Amino acid sequence: MKGGTVQINWHDDKPVLTLDFHPLSATLATAGADFDIKFWSIKPAGTQKLPVVSYLSNLSYHSTAVNVIRFSSSGELLASGADGGDLLIWKLHSADTGQTWKVLKMLRSHLKDILDLQWSTDATYIISGSVDNSCIIWDVNKGTNLQTLETHAHYVQGVAWDPLGKYVSSLSSDRTCRIYMNKPHKSKGTEKINFVCQQVISKADHPLLKNSQETKFHLFHDETLPSFFRRLAWSPDGSFLIVPAGSYKINNASESVNAAYIISRKDLSRPAIQLPCASKAVVAVRFCPIIFKLQGTNSLNSAGVFNLPYRIIFAVATLNSLYIYDTESTSPLAVLAGLHYAAITDITWSSDAHYLALSSQDGFCSLVEFENDELGSPYSLSEGKAKEDSESNLQTGNDTVTLDKPDNMVIEATGNVEGVIADSRKNEAEEKTDDMIIEITGIIGTAELDRRKAEPEDKATKQQWNSCAVNFGAQDKAEKQPANPDSDGKQTESREKTATLQSSLDGKSGAEEKSGQKFSSSKSTPLSNKPAKKRITPIAIDP
């Protein structure tokens, strides 16, 4: 695995707010504050340290910042959402001179900025989320608004469409995640989409205060989170949902832990597992489109956490770092930190899982390239059906599963990153843990591996890594829960994206600001925004 920040003129030095890989090729689409959508060819690095990026073309139609772009599953259509509420559908046309994209439809119903959108699996529908506090279900073929979901009390910053077609979900700065179930109603002999709010996830009980007076706490950050995006995602098989922007407290006296929550399809009423993500809030989640075979090492399946006959890989982005997880390991496969000086805005995988890309407010994008079979062997669906009966016999109990704490894998990059896949390792002593740090010695330097032992931690600050034993392998009915959002009142509508996000990040000095110059330090310089070296571990969230 190799990669790093590609320092080219992506969008005239303006923030890159979103990106997406074409599902049938290695073409990367990016968009941002310069109002344009640009296409880039991504080729293998070969003997170089970074994948080769070449400019292809751009689309100019939007008159405001483009916050989200997403290709349809066929790759024939592209949806782009922008400030002001504009939602455009682009169609790919073939001509003698090559392929071109043209505007097919303009969908207007949102009153304010569109922050996120997601296609249905068959590319028939789109769900979009907006600063006007609403979600809209669109019929793409007719170009009409099928349903407006007005249940949130603040900005809708993330939306996701269940790949099985039964649910859609949304995440808002009103500190609630809402899951809607499709209950079609018949009209003139035809069924029409009708999504009804099924679950509202907002608060949870303190797990350490079961015998005391009931105390509830918020699961998510409020509107002060320095990001306009909270991009949640369903797994490719629809077995679970991962929700960013989590903020979890062990008790009233403890500090909040930034996290992403895993919600099982079998129980959509509450998070089942917490993924800790260091010192910055989680802003985006994206799943690898390829499903892999089980490797049989350090298996969470044997612990009863995931009851899956295959392995799913996903990326979790915080404001300043990227975590790569899978459903079989207790620790991240890798953590990339220090790649950008401003907030990360979006992440995407190529369809063949060879590339992972992320965009940032600092005007740059980073690319990671994986070698063939580096992530594992692809899983065959036909093979899965043959093993379905035997795999379904795996049982999960109701007791909390205690997992080992993962060692921190931090990549402090001042340029490029190489060789960042790592296996989980055991603690050498009860109060000691090894941290593996990869330091980059130059722009095109090689990675030097430096194993360092962390100082003994105070027992009082240690946290257990717990997760609820859940079965993610099947669909189940979720109990209907009344909506009860926590509204903080009306907020100002005006936004200044770059200034707001830039000033909110820690550890910024004049020397750290990126103005197009390349990193040239011969030694790795620790950045103030790197993940803290302390035990931050998933906590069981009891009902």
Q: How many β-strand stretches?
A: 38
> What number is the mean pLDDT?
76
**Low-confidence blocks of residues:** 386-543
Strand order of the largest sheet: 26-27-28-29-34-36-37
Domain CAF1B/HIR1 beta-propeller: 1-375
Biased composition (Basic and acidic residues): 449-461, 487-498
Main location: nucleus
Biased composition (Polar residues): 392-401, 517-528
Overview of this protein structure:
- With 543 residues, the chain is mostly beta strands.
- Helix content is 3%, strand content 39%.
- It contains three helices and 38 strands.
- It has a seven-stranded mixed β-sheet with strand order 26-27-28-29-34-36-37, with no helix packed on it. A five-stranded antiparallel β-sheet has the order 30-31-32-1-35, with no helix packed on it. The protein has a four-stranded antiparallel β-sheet with strand order 2-3-4-5, with no helix packed on it.
- A hairpin with a 5-residue loop joins strand 14 (156-161) and strand 15.
- The chain is globular.
- The protein starts with a strand and ends in a 39-residue tail after the last helix.
- Residues 386-543 have low confidence and may be disordered.
- Residues 392-401, 517-528 have a biased composition (Polar residues).
- This is CAF-1 p60 homolog.
- It comes from Phaseolus coccineus (Scarlet runner bean).
Would you spell out the secondary-structure blueprint of this structure?
Blueprint: E1 2-6, E2 16-21, E3 27-32, E4 37-43, E5 52-59, E6 66-71, E7 77-82, E8 87-95, E9 98-107, E10 114-119, E11 125-130, E12 135-139, E13 144-149, E14 156-161, E15 167-172, E16 177-182, E17 185-187, E18 190-192, E19 195-201, E20 203-205, E21 216-218, E22 233-234, E23 240-248, E24 257-264, E25 273-276, E26 282-287, E27 313-318, E28 321-326, E29 334-337, E30 344-349, E31 355-360, E32 365-369, H1 381-386, H2 388-391, E33 400-403, E34 409-412, E35 416-418, E36 434-440, E37 447-453, E38 465-468, H3 497-504
Parallel strand pairs: 29-34, 34-36
Antiparallel strand pairs: 1-32, 1-35, 2-3, 3-4, 4-5, 6-7, 7-8, 8-9, 10-11, 11-12, 12-13, 14-15, 15-16, 16-19, 17-18, 20-21, 22-23, 23-24, 24-25, 26-27, 27-28, 28-29, 30-31, 31-32, 33-38, 36-37
